[in-house]
Structures are given as C-alpha cells and as structure tokens.
From TrEMBL, chain A:
One GO term of the biological process aspect: transmembrane transport
InterPro entries assigned to the protein according to its UniProt record, in alphabetical order: MetI-like (IPR000515), MetI-like_sf (IPR035906), OppC_N (IPR025966)
Organism placement in taxonomy: Bacteria, Pseudomonadati, Pseudomonadota, Alphaproteobacteria, Rhodobacterales
Start and end residues of each ABC transmembrane type-1 domain: 184-380
One GO location term (cellular component): plasma membrane
Signal peptide: none
Region Disordered, residue ranges: 1-25
Tagged with keyword ATP-binding: no
Record flagged with keyword DNA-binding: no
Residue ranges crossing the lipid bilayer per the database entry: 53-77, 180-213, 311-338, 358-379
Main location as per UniProt: membrane
Record's bilayer topology term: Multi-pass membrane protein
Protein name: Peptide/nickel transport system permease protein
Automatic annotation (TrEMBL), chain B:
Stored SMART domains: AAA (SM00382)
Entries under Pfam families matching the protein: ABC_tran, oligo_HPY
Nucleotide-binding among keywords: yes
Family: Belongs to the ABC transporter superfamily.
UniProt entry keywords in alphabetical sequence: ATP-binding, Cell membrane, Membrane, Nucleotide-binding, Transport
Membrane topology: Peripheral membrane protein
GO MF annotations, alphabetized: ATP binding; ATP hydrolysis activity
Organism of this sequence: Rubrimonas cliftonensis
Location relative to the cell: Cell inner membrane
Protein name: Peptide/nickel transport system ATP-binding protein
PANTHER family assigned to the protein according to its UniProt record, in alphabetical order: DIPEPTIDE TRANSPORT ATP-BINDING PROTEIN DPPD, OLIGOPEPTIDE TRANSPORT ATP-BINDING PROTEIN APPD
Primary location group: membrane
Classification via PROSITE patterns: ABC_TRANSPORTER_1 (PS00211), ABC_TRANSPORTER_2 (PS50893)
C-alpha cells in the first residue's frame, strides 16, 4: 500500500484507493478478541500471573499454609521443651567451615555465663569440636503428624551432645525458632477463621440490604455504621477479657477468631451491598429479570458469579488485619493463653523494654508477622487488579 | 494553484507494546490538510482514527507509541514535525497552533473550575496578557461560539451547562488561541441529533471566519458529507481510501467505502406495511410514569419528573412501531413500562393479545402471570457489552431462558442454542466461547438470539444498534427484519435515529419531553411530517447525500414553549393528539 505521491508532501486532492480486499462475511465469523476467549477465571489467572509480586506472595502463602499441619516435622524441638541451662541463650550461628575445611552445616557447643559487672549473658562457643546438624533423622520426643502418625522423624535434628538454638532461646530456655514454627499454626489460622465468620455475616447482611433495598437496607446500613463507629481496641479487649479463664486453649482460640470476625464484617457487608446495588442495574441482570427468572436464580446464577471474585479479593485484604489483631491481643495478654503458642504470645515476652534491649532475639516473631501481612497485601492487590481481565 | 498543505502526515505508524512484541494499530497512514479546509478521518471502532489524532498532539495513551512517519505542520509560525519534536516544542504547539476537542465534553472539562477559568488558563499558557485582556478575549470567543449569555457562561461550572453548551465551551477553549488546526474527535457523537446539527454548523462558521483547518474524526458519513472537503477512510489502522469528499463519497473506489456508504441509514427506504389493520397485539392507553423529584433535603423535593405522560399507541400483529426521540424524551421508559420492568402510574392500561386469542392486562399481572407473559414478550438492550453476563459461555446464555421456563431437557436446549446461533448468522462452534471474545455486532446477535429463545410474539428493542458501528448496524437491522418476517414477530423499536427506523418500522411515534408529538405510518411521517419537532429531527439527521437544513432545525428543536402555534405549549398544558388526516396524529391545538 503506497500512498499516491511519496515525493514531498501528500497531495490532498489525489484519489487514493487501497488494494486491500474487503470481506464483510469474514468479519462476522471471525472472533474479534480471540485472546479473551476463555472462562473468566482463566483470564483472571493469566492477568494475576503477570503481577509478579502478587504471584510470588501467593506461592509463599500457599507453601506455608500447606506446611502448617507438618510443623512438628519441620521444627527441631517441641514447642514447650525447656532447657534450664540455656535460659536466654543468644542465637547460634549455623556454620559450614571448621578450621578452614568445609564439613557441612554444624554448630559449636555454647555455654552461657552471667557477667555480674554488665548484667549481661555472655555466651562462649567451644570452637574445638564441631557438632554437625542432622537432617531427616530421628530425634527427641515423638510428634503426631496430622493427628494420625506418631513419629520422631524430623527435617532437621539438633546435633548430639549440644543444643542448636538458631534464633536463640526465651526465658524458659525454649527454642525460639521451633516456637515460631508452631506459633504459625494458630497465628495464621486465626485470620482464616475470622474471615470466614466475617464473610458469612457480611454476605448475608450485605446481600439482604443490597437486594431488598428500602428499609432493610437502611437498617443494615445504620447497623454497619454503628459497628464501625465502635472504638475497636477497647471492644476487642472487653470481649476477650470476658472469655472464661478456665476454657481450654482451643476454645479460647476459636472465641478470639470469632471476636475478630464479628468486629470485622461491616467492611465486607458494605462491599457486598454496593456490588449488589451496582449489579442490579446491569443489563444482563435486567435481562434475566425480563426472562422471568426468580430472585433466587438471579442472585445465584447471574449475580454471585459476577462479584464473588471481588469479594475474594476483599477477604484476602481483610486477613492481615485479623492476624495483626490476634498478635495485638495476645501481645497484651488478652488473646490466646499459654500453653498455646502464637506469634503474639511470643511477643508478649518482649513487653518489657529491658528485655528487648538485652535479648533482642525475642522480637524475632515480628519478622514472620510482617512477611505474612505483606504477602497477603500483595496477593490481595494482585487479585484486585486481575479481577477485570477484559481490557 | 491550490495552496500548500498546512499539515501533511506521511507513513504514520503507531504500535502498542514493547518493540519485540509490538502490535501495530496504525500502519502507513498518510494524508494532508490545506489551510481553511476540513479533512474528515472516517472509520469504525478499532480503525485507529482517534489514535491518529492523538499522535499528532503527542497525547497517546499509555503503552502506545509512534514507530514511523512524519507529520509536518506549516503555518505562519514556521514548520515543525509534530511526531519528532521535543516535548517542550510540543507544549508550544498544543493548544496554540493545534487544538483538540473531545467526544465527551463533561470528562474533558474539570468539574471544579468555572468554564471561564479553564478557557483563560489555556489562553494564559500561550498568550501572555493581562487578566482583563484575557477575560475580554474569552468573552469574545464565548460570543463567537454562540453562547446566548457569555458573561454567565464564563462564570458557570461545566455541570450547569447542557451537553450542547458544554461542547460549545470545549470549542471556545480550543478557539481562544486561534489555532491554525483544530482536531475534533467525534465532537458531536455524544449529542442529540438536533444539537449535533447546530454544533457542526458552528464549527463550519468558525472555520470560515478564522481560516483554520479542521481534522474531523468521525464514524458518521452523514456528518462527513456535510462538512468535509476531503476524506480519509481508515479500517483497522490502514488507509483504505482518501481524496476529495466529492470523489470519495460520489465515486468511491474501495469496496469498504462503498459498504460504509450503503450502510449509512437514509430516510427514504421505507419498509412496506405487513401488519393486519384490525388485530393489535399490544394496546397502550393513557400510559404515564412519574418519578418523584430529587430529595433536596430538609423535607423539600424537586418537582416530580413526568418521564412519560399520556402515551397511547397500538402495535398491530406482525407490525413494527418505532418510538423515536432524543435523550430524555421518555422513549426507553415506555419500553420498560410495556414489559412491566417498571410499574406504570395507575390509570393507564397495557393490553396484550396473544396469538392464541388470550387477552392479558399486563399492568395487573400477578407473579405467575407475569412469568408466563415474559415468554411472549422479550427485550433486546442497547449495549451489547453490558447485556451478556461475562461469566457465562454463549451456550449458557442462550439456554438460560429455556432453563428458567423449564422448556425441554438439556439435550434439546443445546440443540435449540445451536439453531439460534445459526439463525442469527453466527457459527454454532462459537457456543462454548465467552461473550468477551466477540465484537459488538456479534454480541448483539447473541443478545437477539437470547431474546428469540422463548419464541416471543413481541420483541422490544431499546436502541439495539446505537452502540454499534455503521456497517454492523446495517447488518443487525437486516437480521431484525429477517427474523421479523420469518417468525411473524411484532416489535416495539426504540431509537434516537429517524433514519434507522425508516428501514424497519411501519409506524412511527415521535416523542419529546415524555409526550408523543406526532404519530403516523412510516411513509406519511417521512413524506409529509407536520410537527415542527419531527421536521427538525428529519432536517438534522445527517445523510451522505443531503445538506442539513438549519432553519428547520432551529424552528423545532427547542423547548415546547418555542414551537410555533398551534404546536407550542407551556408546562403540562399540552394540546391533545389530533388526527389531522386519517391515521396521522399530531399534537396541536385544534
């Protein structure tokens, strides 16, 4: 296709006709956007994968959640194993080279002594003998895998003859590293249960408000505003303090999750309500009404599939709030109670500023909290961006 | 000796994406504009016409870039290549030598600043002058673009102006620096047809007064014929044909141009009347719909809105009644009322007589009666992109009405879906695909197929073609005509475009402000329109081979108060619909 005169300026008067053919029938049969020819979830998945950070966060979260039932297998020590000789033991370094020669991962045996001048614990490694860590070995007390198999197989076992506290020990001489792994079980599931509770309440109340409108909507909206206007922290504290002291740790854990969910539903209910209101005016919903479909069918078949993905994204973004909530409650001593292990409870040991100054490794649980919260935020953002895959 | 071009574009190419995987959306497009002339860049959606215009001003959307070409602008201030000059140089050009007006004036104007302030800002950027001088020049420009009260317009916020006035404000903003080239991107597409006529006239008049060139980007060949000196036809980013307007429109060389011209709706092709006179399928009497006024707070309310007032009509079995009107005329309200998507005001009557002789009072149906009625009356929506659920494959979309009404088993429903696909001209192998894979025209076909799934007797079409490209619009109209003939359908066809209904309807009702102002058989209405508003609509409707008659537009396009006697009225005191000739009704005082 060469324009009439390529020498100098184009002549506005020349009549140029392209030699390309015109095929109206072909236009009708061909797909306009073959790249969009897939179920929505496939399109969302493709767009989500393009969001690298979100995909990585998703993978990270998936891995740790899948590993939760097998914590006993990954942790070198049981969560409550005390070691009276090694109270507040600082982290030991995992080394690879002994006297210049590579001998694989090992630690030096360490002894702690109390320096009466500085009031500090001094740890002295005995660098004469390396104690190699054992991998995929049997050691220690047996743990129960998935509630089925009792075994003492572990991924990593401490060396024989000494301890291996890679992240230090706490005031009872318990291994912080192992406790972080065990703490993940409660800290991570509290968010899931809380979100399920808040999702159920939010979907029900938001859906009712959005579909029936009128005075139901007004009532639910006012309720949402009232719940949102409550000062969150005092209510949490009051509700948690009301949990009877003689309840088992598991009951307390469920109560805490439910409290977190009950206080969080207004956000989701609002999202559901506004989505419902928006979808009701969509032409395809109106078409379904004009087809004679019943309200239940309109909601179930035409509306819910079109906003479920939005809700999943909202819920994902709500989980970190719950994890932080549990951490805050337990940190204040009002959440889970020992002997349960959670990140918040571990941080509870660090309530005292002097403790933080002298034994900074007790703050280690902050690291997984931050990583998980950030990962959920990235994942939620990625999901939200991927929700409208048609542009 | 013709003068040298003001702007010559050569070999323009625009691509999306990184250079390795670049997707070219405009390729090797060349054209030229002489001083004082108008070039119309014509194309359907996806033709790259808007990108071409934006590339000239260096305002391409994110991800798009110019990969080749030159665009040399030669005016009194010198010569510059718009595609290769620096961003600094471009800022000097933008607004000063080349100005742009957009399709949607509401989103192009800032809602937080007065129109005057926005125009002034554009002026100060390019012409340093005192505030008083600037305001004087703005007011002068406002008067030029036809604001009845320039002072008031200067102090008004965009949302206080009507669509037509807003577009005038955009034009004033573009004109205030006296550009040598104005790029107008679909400047009238969002406007009503009578407003469009006056805005087009304004652009033409300003051009005559200031000697600027205009690059008019449009999809409407009727508009092109009325304003353009030369034409460039684009399709999928490639130049199909270019030349003087006379040649391209009079003796088109390319098959695509010929197809576009043939598809442009023209008043005059009148469909023969197929309906039997004495057998109405739908009778509507005294149909009204009043919406409560907006709540102004403190217990006050705005006056209620009469979306439809005292509407009467009959649709004969096998007939097509078109209801035509501009935005806000109440035509879509009528469509929704007829299908009981909304409850009409009490006192009206909607009577449906089925093929089996049953007589249904649609207004009084209970839930089960309404469900049964839904089988017999279906609707096609305006926007094919919103009317199909994005989560359902086409097969589910087409079988959904059958499942709702429990028609047949799964296998027969599938077979019916395939038959429907073929009926609307789409291959049945597309059944497993999702709506987003299809073009607008294909989606509208699917929507029509869905409406036909229950074998309705009455089809209500609410502007089924106005979101579609011209060539696609013609195909969809053909399809509607076919199914009407094949299935003996009766139709209520809502449209803002008189030319579209000419080809399909056998009776037309023209609505304005919730009232029918004229109703007649299609040949009578187009051949001998009586009401000034009908005449204005007809005169304003742009067609490739007819000039707009602005005198007629001005006479009838205004508010009912401005209509001449015996048609004019104030407020709710409308005169009755009078039968001036057999079967020809006009709202006028006797």
């Amino acid at each position: 296709m060469i324009p009439p005169s390529r020498t100098g300026a184009v002549d506005p008067d020349a009549h140029f006709v392209s030699s390309e053919p015109d095929d109206p029938e072909g236009d009708l049969r061909a797909l306009d956007r073959a790249d969009l020819d897939a179920p929505t979830w496939v399109l969302i998945w493709r767009r989500f994968l393009r969001h690298r950070l979100a995909a990585l966060s998703g993978l990270f979260l998936l891995t740790i959640y899948l590993a939760l039932p097998f914590v006993g297998f990954f942790a070198p020590y049981p969560a409550d194993l005390r070691n009276a000789d090694r109270i507040y033991a600082p982290p030991q370094t995992l080394r690879f080279f002994h006297e210049g020669a590579f001998i694989g991962p090992f630690v030096y045996a360490t002894t702690e002594s109390f320096d009466t001048d500085t009031f500090q614990i001094v740890s002295t490694p005995d660098t004469s003998t390396p104690h190699p860590a054992r991998f995929f070995a049997r050691c220690g007390t047996p743990h129960v895998l998935l509630g089925l198999v009792e075994t003492n197989w572990r991924v990593m076992c401490p060396p024989e003859g000494t301890e291996m506290f890679l992240l230090g020990a706490d005031r009872l001489g318990r291994d912080v590293h192992s406790r972080i792994l065990y703490g993940a079980q409660l800290s991570l599931t509290v968010g899931l249960i809380g979100v399920v509770v808040s999702f159920a309440i939010g979907l029900l109340l938001g859906g009712v408000a959005g579909y029936f409108r009128g005075w139901t909507d007004a009532a639910v909206s006012r309720l949402i505003e009232i719940v949102r206007s409550l000062p969150e922290l005092p209510i949490w504290l009051a509700l948690s303090a009301a949990i009877p002291a003689n309840w088992s740790p598991v009951s307390v854990f469920f109560m805490i999750s439910i409290i977190l969910g009950v206080l969080d539903w207004p956000g989701l209910a609002r999202a559901v309500r506004s989505k419902f209101l928006a979808l009701r005016t969509e032409d395809y919903v109106r078409a379904a009404e004009l087809m004679g479909a019943s309200p239940a069918r309109i909601i179930g078949v035409h509306m819910i599939p079109n906003f479920m993905s939005h809700l999943v994204a909202s819920a994902t973004l709500a989980i970190p709030g719950m994890i932080l909530g549990e951490t805050a409650l337990s940190f204040l001593g009002l959440g889970l109670r020992p002997p349960a292990v959670s990140w918040g409870l571990m941080l509870n040991d660090a309530l005292d500023l002097t403790v933080v100054e002298i034994y900074p490794w007790l703050l280690m649980p902050l690291l997984p909290v931050m990583m998980v919260v950030l990962a959920f935020s990235f994942l939620g953002d990625g999901l939200r961006d991927a929700l409208d895959p048609y542009s | 000796m013709p003068s040298a071009p003001l702007l010559s574009v050569e070999g323009l190419a625009i691509a999306f994406g990184p250079s390795k995987a670049a997707r070219h959306v405009v390729e090797d497009v060349s054209f030229a504009i002489r001083p004082g002339e108008t070039l119309a860049v014509v194309g359907e959606s996806g033709s790259g016409k808007t990108l071409t215009g934006r590339a000239l001003l260096g305002v391409l959307p994110r991800g798009a870039r110019v990969t080749a070409g030159r665009a040399v602008l030669r005016d009194a201030e010198g010569e510059v290549d718009l595609l290769s000059c620096s961003e600094r140089a471009m800022q000097q050009v933008r607004g000063d030598r080349v100005a742009m007006i957009f399709q949607e004036p509401m989103s192009a104007l800032s809602p937080l600043h007065t129109v005057g302030a926005q125009v002034l800002e554009g002026l100060f950027l390019h012409a340093p002058c005192s505030r008083a001088e600037g305001e004087a020049r703005c007011l002068e420009t406002f008067a030029e673009v036809g604001f009845p009260d320039p002072e008031r317009a200067f102090a008004a916020y965009p949302f206080e102006l009507s669509g037509g006035l807003r577009q005038r404000a955009m034009i004033a903003m573009a004109m205030v620096c006296r550009p040598s080239l104005m790029i107008a991107d679909e400047p009238t597409t969002a406007l009503d047809v009578t407003t469009q006529a006056t805005v087009l006239d304004l652009i033409r008049r300003l051009q005559g007064e200031t000697g600027m060139s205009v690059m008019l980007i449009t999809h409407d060949l009727g508009v092109v014929a009325n304003v353009a000196d030369s034409v460039a036809v684009l399709r999928q980013g490639r130049l199909m044909e270019s030349g003087s307007a006379e040649t391209v429109l009079g003796a088109p060389g390319h098959a695509y141009t010929r197809r576009l011209l043939a598809a442009a709706p023209v008043v005059g092709d009148v469909a023969p009347c197929a309906a039997r006179r004495d057998d109405p399928i739908l009778t509507v009497r005294r149909l009204s719909k009043t919406y409560p006024g907006r709540n102004l707070g403190l217990g006050r309310r705005a006056a209620p809105v009469h979306a439809a007032a005292d509407v009467n009509f009959r649709i004969l079995r096998g007939g097509v009644l078109a209801v035509v009107g501009e935005s806000g005329s109440g035509k879509s309200t009528v469509a929704r009322l007829v299908l009981r998507a909304e409850a009409p005001d009490p006192g009206g009557e909607i009577r449906f007589r089925g093929r089996d002789g049953s007589d249904i009072d649609v207004g009084a149906l209970d839930a089960s009666g309404l469900k049964a009625f839904r089988r017999r009356a279906q609707m096609v929506f305006q926007d094919p992109f919103a009317a199909l659920s994005p989560r359902m494959p086409v097969r589910d979309i087409l079988t959904e009405p059958l499942r709702v009404h429990g028609v047949g088993d799964a296998a027969s429903q599938k077979a019916r879906a395939a038959a429907l696909m073929r009926r609307v001209g789409l291959p049945a192998e597309h059944l497993a695909r999702y709506p987003h894979a299809f073009s607008g025209g294909q989606r509208q076909r699917i929507a029509i197929a869905r409406a036909l799934a229950l074998e309705p007797e009455l089809l209500v079409c609410d502007e089924p073609t106005s979101a579609l490209d011209v060539s696609v619009q013609a195909q969809v109209l053909d399809l509607l005509r076919e199914v009407r003939a094949d299935l003996g359908l009766s139709m209520l066809f809502i449209s803002h475009d008189l030319a579209v209904v000419a080809a399909l309807a056998d009776r037309v009702a023209v609505m304005r402000r919730g009232r029918v102002v004229e109703e007649a058989p299609v040949d009578r209405l187009f051949g001998a329109p009586e009401h000034p508003y009908t005449r204005a609509l007809l005169a304003a409707s742009p067609e490739p081979h007819r000039r707009l008659d602005l005198r007629l537009v001005a006479l009838g396009a205004g508010e009912p108060e401005s209509w001449p006697d015996p048609y004019g009225y104030r407020g709710d005191a409308a005169p009755p619909l009078t039968e001036i000739r057999p079967d020809h009704f006009v709202r006028c005082a006797a």
